[in-house]
Amino acid sequence: MIKLGERQTLKCVKKVDFGVYVGTEEEKVLLPKKQVPETLESGDEIDVFIYRDSSDRLIATINQPYITLGEMAVLEVKGISKIGAFLDWGLEKDLFLPFKEQTCEVVKGKSYLVYLYIDKSNRLAATMNIHRFLENATKYQKDDTVTGIVYEINKKIGAFVAIDNEYYGLIPAKEMQSDIQVGDMVNARITDIREDGKINLSPNKKAYIQIDEDAQKVLDVIKEYGGELPYGEKANPEIIKRDFKMSKNAFKRALGHLYKNREIDIQENSIKIISK
């Protein structure tokens, strides 16, 4: 039986001018001539992947796609049309990602985590709605550092992360960095492993480590300004995000740490490094 979206070993049943047919006499599919090994003869077996060509006909290829049926992979957007996006999955015909299967507005050139499925029209398609395909992890421990890709964002709940493209993770809204986007790869610390196996994450390190790093970042930026910032701790959050790549709360914690250690002087409209 020929299986759409899967790699399988099929028999060469007929040679023609434009390629060979593989499968059985009752059910066969074309392997185009440019894909046929010179040594392949009728009766030989060959490993192929089955998908549909631009005319919506089943076709075989010896090329290995980046994703097969029932798998997840990070794929790049090659183009966008009125009906959806098209992804590079390593084959001549791009993979279709319908609008209704997108969790955000995708951007050409950016990559997203998708799952490959067969739609109601018996065509291969991709979806970014991967939540139900992720597993609950048991191999991690609290404070482990993991890597994952953001596949959906709900501003009230947080950023949903696929850890190792396989396990469910969540960065709660209170832990989210303001510039995080769907498709971003993140390194995060496990803050909690729930009883159901789902994992809560934080992109920040433990507080005492994070505040030291943030404080050093603040000092480095002040030095870039010549030793004195042209604004105080009540600066607009957008300015803080622009200069320090951190939230206003993180910025104020770092300032408090530096002020306590007598490394800076804070005025209403300036923050200055104290010379030692």
What percentage of residues falls in helices of 4 or more residues? 10-25%
- Rg over CA atoms, rounded to whole Å, is 26 Å
Task: Give the overall shape, derived from the CA principal axes.
Answer: elongated
Intertermini distance: 79 Å
Strand content: 35-45%
Q: pLDDT average, as an integer?
A: 88
Q: Numbering strands along the chain, what is their spatial order in the largest sheet?
A: 3-2-1-4-5
Helical element count?
A: 3
Describe the protein in words.
The protein is mainly beta and 276 residues long. The chain has 3 helices and 18 strands. The protein has helices at 207-224, 237-244, 248-260, and strands at 7-16, 19-23, 28-32, 45-52, 58-61, 72-80, 84-88, 95-98, 111-118, 124-127, 145-154, 158-163, 167-172, 185-193, 199-202, 228-229, 264-267, 270-273. The strands form 4 sheets. A 5-stranded antiparallel beta sheet has the order 3-2-1-4-5, with no helix packed on it. A 5-stranded antiparallel beta sheet has the order 8-7-6-9-10, with no helix packed on it. The protein has a 5-stranded mixed β-barrel with strand order 11-12-13-15-14. Strand 14 and strand 15 (199-202) form a beta hairpin. The longest helix has 18 residues, at 207-224. The chain is elongated. The mean pLDDT is 88.
